[in-house]
Amino acid sequence: MALKTPDVRIEQLDFKKIGVKAILIGISQDKIELSSSIKRIDAELGNIISNCIKNKDFNGEKGEVISLYNSVKNNYLILVGLGEQGKITLDLIANTIAGVLRALRDKGISKIGILFDSFIFKNFDDAEAIEKIAVSSLIGLYRYDEFKTSDTNKLKYVDEIKVLTLNYNKKYDAIIKNAGIISNAVNKTRALVATPPNIATPEYVASYAKGIAKSSGLRCTIIEEEEARKLGMNCFLAVAKGSANKPKFVILEYNGGKGQHVVLVGKGVTFDSGGLNIKTHPYMQNMKDDKSGAVAVIHVIEACSLLKLPINVIAIAPLCENMPSGTSYRPDDVIKSYLGVTVEIRNTDAEGRMILCDALAYSLKYKPEAIIDVATLTGAAKIVLGETGTPIMGNNPNLISKIKKASEKSLEKVWEMPLWEEYADELKSDIADMKHLSDEGNAGTIIGGTFLKNFIGSTPWAHMDIAITSLAKADKGVNPKGPTGVSVRLLIELLRGWR
Ligand code: BES
Ligand code: ZN
Ligand code: ZN
């Protein structure tokens, strides 16, 4: 997988030496008082910006973009409207810049400057804003070209982005470097999730993880089917049974500090046909994305190592394929889980919780400080928060509050759902310890979490249901159409602020 990413640098603004074809300049709607760096550019160019504003050709409204040709330097000034100053957030800036960069790329502009000082407003921290601008540029420009063989000469790329400021400080270079690590984690997640299911089988993803372990110094253990059977991971194996592709249970370990591990568990269904409860059209489409959680945690732990975070992390990725065949598990089956709890199957399409329950219970052997699972678990997440945010839930308010803080900082939106006792009643089974879903089908996303809660004992645990946020249906802000790599930025933020 070769990802073409632009080179991002931060530089002192020197108008004589700007070697870019276009410069993004952010302008707010009200109180248009141009900042000192904009004033400088404006003066150098015979007041084209201020005249344009004076003539009301540009008002700084949200979404407004105008490009001014600068014949002196043969380049373009791209004025980007940011709306009312009081409402400008880093989220708005990140999404706006990403969209404008894509549009410029598609016009064939390969060297782009971003006038940092024009995007920074009083309530922002400089370092944070630089990181967000770099990350949103890098992840906003992502595109998956792996299988394009014709007209590849027509594919356009941005190869250089210069973040320009009048107040350059050497310490900004390290921020840009970290932004590169975070962005790579997101983009590599997107690319592996996008890899088609005939290629990205459990075996393929497992050897990919092994490769990452090798290159970034992680410990890697892969539990094969036979061993999983001996260990009693019967829920995981039940899901895998219907497929000709063998399951793999991947464990990556990063030891960068002292103390107990934080365990990340990611759902890794490389294709979810539904199994015997086969999905109907169009619901089987994009079910290669059902490995999004696993692929995310693999890249988050890689980033932990590249960022040299002073903590200990374990990433667990149960990988298998959910297929219908003569060997598939069935509705009505009763399966004894790794923890010993017996589970009555009602619908083979609720396979995610089956592989996760064994992975969660297995993770307890590390006596972790906290467990976080990430899973494309329920289509019902669409009813909960739509495509905008990820529903989260858990058993520990302190962990949930850490995740919410990381959410705000990383610009990945989450909202907590309750795990009230009443929901547990819906999982009572007539013949086994529990069912894996409720008959009524109400509160599907919460029922998913309610089931998982039985497999982590009293360890602080949180569950993120990324079923809907893992895929962008169209280009939107920092997410180009396709797999989004959701949870990667949030989890990296969480782990770097862990202690
Ligand atoms: N992988 C799906 C969830 C999903 C749905 C992800 C849509 C992305 C988009 C999951 O395994 C599933 O099929 N869940 C069922 C659960 C139901 C049978 C209780 C669902 O959401 O319909
Ligand atoms: Zn399913
Ligand atoms: Zn699934």
What's this model, at a glance?
With about 500 residues, this protein is of the alpha/beta class. It has helices spanning about 35-45, 50-55, 90-105, 125-140, 170-195, 200-215, 225-230, 235-240, 290-305, 350-365, 380-385, 395-410, 420-425, 445-450, 490-495; strands at about 5-10, 20-25, 65-70, 75-80, 110-115, 160-165, 220-225, 250-255, 260-265, 270, 310-320, 335, 340-345, 370-375, 390-395, 415, 435, 460-465, 470, 480-485. Strand 3 (about 65-70) and strand 4 form a beta hairpin.
Description:
With 499 residues, this protein is an alpha/beta fold. 34% of the residues lie in helices and 20% in strands. The chain contains 15 helices and 20 strands. The strands form 4 sheets. Strands 7, 8, 9, 10, 11, 14, 15, 16 and 18 form a 9-stranded mixed sheet that branches. Strands 1-6-5-2-4-3 form a 6-stranded mixed sheet, covered by helices on one side. A 3-stranded mixed sheet has the order 12-13-17, covered by helices on one side. It is elongated and about 80 Å long. The site of one zinc ion has 4 residues, from loops.
